Amino acid sequence: xxxxxxxxxxxxxxxxxxxxxxxxxxxxxxxxxxxxxxxxxxxxxxxxxxxxxxxxxxxxxxxxxxxxxxxxxxxxxxxxxxxxxxxxxxxxxxxxxxxxxxxxxxxxxxxxxxxxxxxxxxxxxxxxxxxxxxxxxxxxxxxxxxxxxxxxxxxxxxxxxxxxxxxxxxxxxxxxxxxxxxxxxxxxxxxxxxxxxxxxxxxxxxxxxxxxxxxxxxxxxxxxxxxx
Amino acid sequence: xxxxxxxxxxxxxxxxxxxxxxxxxxxxxxxxxxxxxxxxxxxxxxxxxxxxxxxxxxxxxxxxxxxxxxxxxxxxxxxxxxxxxxxxxxxxxxxxxxxxxxxxxxxxxxxxxxxxxxxxxxxxxxxxxxxxxxxxxxxxxxxxxxxxxxxxxxxxxxxxxxxxxxxxxxxxxxxxxxxxxxxxxxxxxxxxxxxxxxxxxxxxxxxxxxxxxxxxxxxxxxxxxxxxxxxxxxxxxxxxxxxxxxxxxxxxxxxxxxxxxxxxxxxxxxxxxxxxxxxxxxxxxxxxxxxxxx
Lengths: 228, 294
Ligand SMILES: Nc1ncnc2c1ncn2[C@@H]1O[C@H](COP(=O)(O)OP(=O)(O)OP(=O)(O)O)[C@@H](O)[C@H]1O
Ligand SMILES: [Mg+2]
Description:
The structure holds 2 protein chains of 2 kinds.
Chain A: E1 2-11, E2 20-30, E3 35-39, H1 46-53, E4 61-66, E5 69-70, H2 76-83, E6 86-89, H3 101-110, H4 116-129, H5 145-157, E7 163-167, H6 175-190, E8 194-199, H7 202-208, E9 211-216, E10 219-223
Parallel strand pairs in A: 3-8, 3-9, 6-7, 7-8
Antiparallel strand pairs in A: 1-2, 1-4, 4-5, 9-10
Helix pairs in contact in A: 3-4, 3-5, 4-5
Chain B: H1 2-18, H2 20-56, E1 58-63, H3 69-77, E2 82-88, H4 90-101, H5 106-109, E3 119-124, H6 131-143, E4 147-152, H7 155-196, H8 198-206, H9 211-255, H10 266-288
Antiparallel strand pairs in B: 1-3, 1-4, 2-3
Helix pairs in contact in B: 1-9, 2-7, 2-9, 7-8, 7-9, 7-10, 9-10
The structure holds adenosine-5'-triphosphate and magnesium ion.
Magnesium ion binds at residues 46-47, 91, 167 of chain A.
């Protein structure tokens, strides 16, 4: 499903002339329907790794394949099509401020031209799953941090993605809510979705007893399974 | 279908966000179209007057009393520039004069003999009804034996023509200038809007929205601004017609012998609306068109 081959990412930086090395010669492979945690301290490169997967960023070196397709070779239309198969929960949420909770979640269905009834039904399903159906008419600014995060989760799940990328999905949630969300991810995973969760909470990953790729300063320092 | 309604919804959002600058764009479009409309109306009125007078353009050749009127008539009828030729005999001329004088006919009773000359009235073929042709033809008629004097009117029709051209040029010039301003305002408004929504557009891209869905709304917004501007212009022109037409009608009838033409035909309206759409579309295309693929 996902292949990283000697991937490095250097960001241009205002701090140092040679830039910031966010990822350094990263190689791993994730099979279809795997559930993988990417862990590491702040600044280790977790978000960068996920951003490369949706082609929000391009690698400085190396190759990335998703579903057998080399991301660097894709044309814009193919990238759009690929993104429709991926559900992303961004670390910073990225909800659209001038749309209601409902519209934020429905957006990802509408952009691929889903029928109105279908949009209504699926969006409400997804909001119910994260416990936010009562707030479907609210605007993001009127939500708590945790609620916003749950909207972002609903948005990522509503399309029943082939690949779910979650960047600190439970950072703003209490342990109980976080546990519920993880259970939700597990259900999605058993239905065949490949799940990649980035988090700095080692404990969370350990509790879930799933494969864990550990990053440190941009390098893979440990991979608890999977073919490298 | 659902994608279309989504696109329209997005466009509505874009319009609501852009606020006063889209009002400015609409007003400039309206101003431009109203200006062009008014000048074109003036030009068209003059054009009608000109056509009217060209149709009336005649050469009158007065014959001396010895002239062989019938053979002259045959001669001029043989010329291609002459659409029609008519002989007005001395008797007919007197009869006409009687008609004009109406109740003061007794003035004519005392005349010893008919003092009026016979004349040939020539109507010109449509393609010969230009001032130059008329003048040339009048010259030829004047050189015929038996023709005493030639009269024709052409010069001021020419002047009318010049005015019409000047008015069209001025109208199109000012209108074009304002249209350019309108296009640039639409461009500015779309650029500002894309900047304000840059983050949002990026998120939409990341969740798999195609470029058409992301930029389409700006294009549609521009076109809608243009069309609304055109509608406002149509309203202004219609109002102008209602206010001005009754006042201008007597003046026009007096000076040009014309009914005023109506300002706007349905076709004009359609052209104006299409023009608005094109103008607005062009404006936003300048802002968001770069790198856009169908
Ligand atoms: N757009 C950017 N421009 C420059 N440097 C960046 C950019 N994004 C990230 N970096 C740098 O790259 C490194 C890795 O960042 P990244 O966001 O991937 O870390 P992370 O593991 O997600 O950290 P966190 O747990 O705090 O979210 C950091 O040193 C960061 O400063
Ligand atoms: Mg991060």
